[in-house]
Design goal:
The complex is a heterodimer of chains A (208) and B (676). Helix content of chain A is 78%, strand content 0%. With 208 residues, chain A is an all-alpha fold. Chain B has a domain at 270-526: Cytochrome C Oxidase, Chain A. Chain B is built from 19 helices and four strands. In chain B, strand 1 and strand 2 (574-576) form a beta hairpin. Classes of the chains: A mainly alpha (208), B mainly alpha (676). Chains A and B meet through helix 1, helix 2, helix 6 and helix 7 of A and helix 6 and helix 7 of B.
Chain lengths: 208, 676
Amino acid sequence: MDAAAAMDHHDQHESTGIDHRKLGMWVFLSSEFLFFGALITNYLLYQGQPGFARPYPAEIYDIPFTSFSSFALLMSSLTMVLAHNALARHDQHATRTWLLATAMLGSVFLGGQVFEFTEFITVGAMKLTTNPAASAFYMLTGFHGFHVLLGILMLLTLYGISRRQGELSEASGLNLELVGLYWHFVDIIWIVIFTVVYLLASVPAGVG
Amino acid sequence: MTATAERRPATTIFRRPRSTTGFWGWVTTADHKKIGIMYGYAAFIFFLVGGLEALLLRIQLSSADNTFLTAAEYNAAFTMHGTTMVFLFIMPISAAFINYLLPLMIGARDVAFPRMNALSWWIFLFAGIFLYSVLVFSDPAAPAGVEGVSGNLDPADNTVLGGMPDGGWFGYQPNAGPFYSPGTAMDYWALGVQFLGLASLISSVNFIVTIFNMRALGMRLLRMPVFVWMSLVVALLLLFSLPIIAIALFMVTFDRQFGSLFFVAEAGGDPILWQHLFWLFGHPEVYILILPAMGIVSEVLPVFSKKPLFGYAAVVFAGAAIAFLGFGVWAHHMFASGISPVAQAAFGLSTMTIAVPTGVKIFNWMGTMWGGRLKFTTPMLFAIGFVAMFVIGGLSGVTHAVVPSDWQQTDTYYIVAHFHYVLFGGSVFGLFAGLYYWFPKMTGRLLNEKLGKLNFWTMFTGFNLTFAPMHWLGLQGMVRRTAYYPPEAGFDFWNLVATVGAFIIAAGVLIFMFNWWRSKKHGEPSGIDPWDARTVEWTTPNPTPEYNFGVAPTVTSLDDFWHKKYAEDSEGRPVRRPEAEETLTNLMETGINPPHPIHLPAPSYYPILLAAGIPLVGWGIIYHTSFVGKLLILVGVLVVASASFGWSMEPLEEPHDEHGDSEPSGDGYSSLEDDA
């Protein structure tokens, strides 16, 4: 291809100077805020309503345990940044290590959520069908867990590509950044959920 | 979706499709124009389906105590009429226009994510088919997956038509919940609308990035055609309102299928929450339906008035203001639901406020026509019809902002009259103006003007006969969503008039279809600039070449194309430049024989494959208590996952041997057009 055509071709791209995919990810994440906003609102609406069948979610939280899994998720943001940083230094080995570490920490969080749900259902006797607050709790944290799961799958795919090709190319570097954006978003949402839903939880007067 | 794409061609499940013509060319295409055309035809087919449902409703209401439909069939028909017209006609045909025109209007060769664009289209199509598969699969006696609830419908309702969703397009709870709508019909509705929302969400991200990132050189934001601006506003509205309805619909599906208690009042659930969530989406949705038509009208009126759009910036900012305020007026749909007086006052005020930017637009359109040399072509007639009918619908809309008046009007035919004046007299007339105006872009031919005028006047007459009487029927107290009215109510005459009007509309639609079918083959050839247009999309030959522009355009002003053809004399009147004809000939020449090789999005199998997995999951969820259901979920998830994986492994562009190089940046383009 001659240079003029290349010019012609590229002149019409990226008026903002930001890669399409990166801009697209930001735009998508802005929509996701509304998604979780609606879920959190549902929960807040129902958590303090009197007269529901017990238990309320706030009665059976295990804050120390959830703090631990939240800590694992927070640390995964750190390892994500380290992976990104390692790729910028062209340290392929470290990139792979940190990617895997991120996925592992995400899995610890997800495992914690599975354990928590199981405990709540069997020991705490709080099911999706117990009361509207429980419904809202499971739907909110469940959708968040689903987002974490998707993130883990994306991380593992990056890891697999890196293993097979022996390196992450420049184009994959952008993909790593995109996965990173998504991962940090999922993390930030959890900070809000953990604070608002768990730590500031309330039950109606006379309960618990 | 492309998060894990790599550059080197890796093992792919399929060989990359090569064909750009024929059946597979359409199935695997990532070309925004082909996708736009497919959107358009599919939407029109759904328009006919929704229209048939409307005719059934009108036949039923043509006389008092009519027995043409059972009450259940009537409920199903109005539910599916609304759902079809909103989600399967106006939204996708707007998407058709945006798909086809947006890249052309900003001087781009495609959208930012061509394959994701194809994905949106296929998800939309499969979601529409999924929604209507209820006709085949719905079983009124089937349990909804909630203990203690089994089908208790009247066997008389067990007809094909009566088996469709019947809870209204608004799906009010608890009426549409598991206890009052047993059977699977409303599950089809909740999941179908959910999937349609997913398609729109993907589109909205795509359009926003395209507009921000792919404008031609010199195309600043305030030089974009108004239609592009309105597309941007619509995409932002979709982006922020769809996640809310997604959650609300998930709540319904969970209530119905998994026994959650969100809207079950007996357990403490709050049915009013559904109304809040639905209308928090639903009111922005109203602007999603009208703004593309407003964009079209803002393109058509200046061209046929031979004047620039009056107050371009005001029109643009009014559109943005409507969108912004549109998120703060939702509770005016709920004045009769018992919300507090303070909320009623606040939402009444905000609703009056939104009339201001709308009024700004109306005055700007009138200012555009004022003193212009008007040419009453068919697109112009539809555009003027839009303005006139929208004023009527807008004014009756303002009356809903007055709370006591709204209490009187709620759930009467006055409301039905109002929103058909804005959605049919508004949106649909605007969209028809667009179809007549841009038909040459797609075919290189003009639609027949005589038939076009006949089409307009038939639809205009039929429309007013149908919906104007509903104003006074409503004020007399005729309630909507009811299959019967008693003879002593005195509603017979105007209902009969409305029914006759509905059939006149249908005749107008048939004239349009005949005109389309005939003009596609025998229409007058349009040349490059049939309307003496103002915007960049007309600087490329008709029908649009695959690569859009032979040479990527450069823009120096608003209405750039016009200024290339016209100068001004000392009194500001347009004078055609002597070199105008030469400019057009050159554009034609470079458009047909581009001087440089051009890159086009490569076709792909993965969008349609990924989309095909989604309705499988939908059916699986509805029958999740059975083995078949679980299997369907599994297969659907596997299809989606493997398609996503194959997609991400598919290189963004095919390496092209002819040039012996590959594109340095991953922009999703591949060279298919190599003859310079």
